[in-house]
Amino acid sequence: MISRTLRTLIEEKPFVTCPGVFDLVSAKLADRTRADALYMTGYGAVASYLGLPDAGLATYSQMLDRVQAIAQTVHKPLIADGDTGYGGLLNVHHTVRGYEKAGAAAIQLEDQQSPKKCGHTPNRHVIPVKEMINKLMVANDARSSRDFLIIARTDARTPLGLDEAIRRGEAYAKAGADIIFIESPESEAEMRKIGSALDVPLVSNQLHGGRTPILSQDKLREIGYRMAIYPTAGLLAAAYALNNVYGSLVDDKPVQAPLYDFNEFSSLIGFQEVWDFEKKYASLEAG
Q1: Average pLDDT over residues 193-197
Q2: Which residue of 203, 231, 262, 265 pairs with 20 in a disulfide if CB–CB is 3.0 to 4.6 A?
Q3: Rounded Cα gap, residues 89 and 96, in angstroms
Q4: pLDDT tens string 38-91
Q5: Which residue has the higher pLDDT, 51 or 117?
Q6: How far is CA 140 from CA 54, 96, 133, 186, 274, in A?
Q7: 42-50 vs 60-71: helix axis angle to the nearest 10?
Q8: pLDDT at position 1
Q9: Contacts of 46 (CB under 8 A, 6+ apart)
Q10: Model pTM score
Q11: Domains in the chain, please, with CATH?
């Protein structure tokens, strides 16, 4: 059970740290850390689940399956990427209801045109402000609890400039979004401008390999952010390790990369519970 809601964390903690998770193993590992909450990255979930790019190819049903599986596995609040809401206003209503029922603590909705793309890749386009405001109004009405948070993301910085992105952030906050996410600022100066312009909880996308500078949590808090997500760090680390290990195996070379202890991993994924169950009901099996 989740002991503290994401809303409580944002209200009570100076900064909320959210590692990105992309499958059930990464979720279990991140859940063991001192992280405040977890972020189900659309980029990573689509890559690991479907082997496809984060380019609007995953369906609502496929993403809901991932949300539910991860939320039921972890104890920390889970922020889930909801893309554009997977369609029009009725789709947004359905998506918010589905994500909340699946156990997510928050949904991230963005103002990209469909099909959407990863926020640190080119050729992204945004919908009109009014259209996104309408989506947020529907999302507000759809949620059954105010503890289920709505994160409004704008991708306007890249195609329309920082000032327009800030203007959209202000409009989305007025429309009822709990947290504002201005995607892909390209310098610390831009991030400072966002932090000083918006008097609402802000999340920084600390995407390793992306357009935005990777800053310390103290620095992010100083310039006005209340939360950070780290979508790609775990995914890229896992991919790098797997690439090296598989290459060594195929080339008949000793595996050089550190390996997670087999017994500890067996415990992580629940074998101890299986063994305890078998011991408890051994007499029934024998009969």
Answers
A1: 97
A2: 231
A3: 11
A4: 999 999 999 999 999 998 899 999 999 999 999 999 999 999 999 999 999 999
A5: 51
A6: 26, 9, 10, 31, 42
A7: 100
A8: 39
A9: 52, 53, 54, 57, 58
A10: 0.94
A11: 6-239 (3.20.20.60), 257-287 (no CATH)
**Residues 255-286 as b or e (16 or more Cβ within 10 Å = b):** eeeeeeeeeeeeebeeeeeeeeeeeeeeeeee
Residue 211: other Cβ atoms inside 10 A: 17
**Ramachandran angles phi, psi of 261, nearest 5°:** -60, 130
Q: Is the pLDDT of residue 123 over 90?
A: no
What's phi and psi for 205, nearest 5 deg?
A: -90, 100
The one-letter amino acid at 215: L
**How many angstroms separate the CA atoms of 94 and 139, rounded?**
9
**What's the token pair of residue 126?**
């945004």
Indicate if the pLDDT at residue 3 is higher than 60.
Answer: no
CB atoms near residue 105 (< 10 Å): 23
Instruction: Give the count of beta carbons closer than 10 Å to the beta carbon of residue 127.
Output: 17
Please report the pLDDT score of residue 142 as a whole number. Answer: 98
